[in-house]
Amino acid sequence: MTWLWRRIQDEPALAYQLVNALVLLLVGFGLDWTGEQVALVGTFTAALLGFLTRKAVTPTVKRGDTQV
């Protein structure tokens, strides 16, 4: 399970798209969810993984600083 969490941390945008595609696939094959429920899962997933995405793409070294 650790490998899954590490993979999500490495590629949060990919994880979001996979969750989104999985939900839509399940709904397409008969999962009895309303459009609102699908939207809520998508919104929650985007918000949660958005924090990881920001952390992954935000520089940690300020301009002029040197890395050791």
What does this molecule look like?
The radius of gyration is 16 Å and the shape is elongated. The model has no long low-confidence stretch (mean pLDDT 85). Helix 1 (2-10) crosses helix 2 (12-28) and helix 2 runs antiparallel to helix 3. The two termini are 32 Å apart. It contains three helices and no strands. Helix content is 72%, strand content 0%. It is mainly α. It has helices spanning 2-10, 12-28, 35-57. It has one domain (2-56).
Topology (elements, then pairings):
Elements: H1 2-10, H2 12-28, H3 35-57
Helix pairs in contact: 1-2, 2-3
Give the beta-strand count: 0
Protein structure class: mainly alpha
Please mark out the parts with pLDDT under 50 across 5 or more consecutive residues, or reply none. none
* Shape estimate: elongated
User: SSE string, helix = H, strand = E?
Assistant: HHH
Helix content: over 70%
Distance between the termini: 32 Å
Please give the count of helices. 3
- The radius of gyration is 16 Å
Mean pLDDT rating: 85
Largest sheet composition: none
Question: How many structural domains are formed by the residues?
Answer: 1
In percent terms, what proportion of residues is strand?
A: under 5%
